[in-house]
Amino acid sequence: MRNDMDGTELFCNYYKQWIEVYKKDAIREATMAKYLMTQKWVEKLVPRLKVSDLTRTVYQQLLNDYAKEHERQTTLDFHHQLKGAILDAVDEGLIDRDPTRKAIIKGKTPKVKKIKYLNQFELHTLIAHLDIRENPNWDWFILLVAKTGMRFSEALAITPADFDFARQTLSVSKTWDYKGEGGFLPTKNKSSVRKIQIDWQIVVKFSELVKNLPEDKPIFVGEDKIYNSTVNDVLSRHCRECGISVISIHGLRHTHASLLLFAGVSIASVARRLGHASMTTTQKTYLHIIQELENKDVDLVMRTLSGL
Q1: By the 8 A CB rule, do 253 and 151 touch?
Q2: 0.90 cut: is pTM over it?
């Protein structure tokens, strides 16, 4: 940080420099974008606030103002992204006491988000409608995501070398930077590095597809820039032509997980297959499906007990 910076510095300027010094080139591009967005909100909400004037009351009001337009979880993220910089300002003697202590996180009530997914019949109809040609196309990509539940960026990064056809596994160890300049990036988290068991249909089809392709080059990435919307448009067209629910590529990931849960696969196994950091993430995402399964379990328990 600049040596000439003192408590009279505007907080928005201090925070901007703090991001530059401590976060640039140290965090993922997507995470960096969140910090820069937080910086814009600081500039909007407290453009004239000096570092030395950042008291608990002032900080709480900042959070309250932000919470008027955001859900509680988003406000909590905003708080965490500011807190690191503020604690450093306390350590540097620019602020007397920690103004983030006992901060109360508010926010708008989150909307109920019911995930969109296909049922087993609809997915079967979709897969049968795909145009699986000799060379890779987006229909091949849709098939792979439907059968593995991979994230969009993970599937883009798949190379022929990632397949182990003998063991019927697919290694997920990287993502593709489709939002930036292209190239491989690390996975979302450590849990995202995994081996996915693949069925014999995928083994047969993809072993034939990749046999003449470069081992270390992504199967679905060419010279043109890739947009999520392009693949979603292809999938939407198939859905409409099949007369089934229109979903996105991410909806295919939900479909994959939902069908496994309805088939009786444990939450722990589904979490590992999806690359979730914990089962809690899986439980939160598929809460309504899990509740439906629990209702079926109650019926099963009653039938079992009544037969004793």
Answers
A1: yes
A2: no
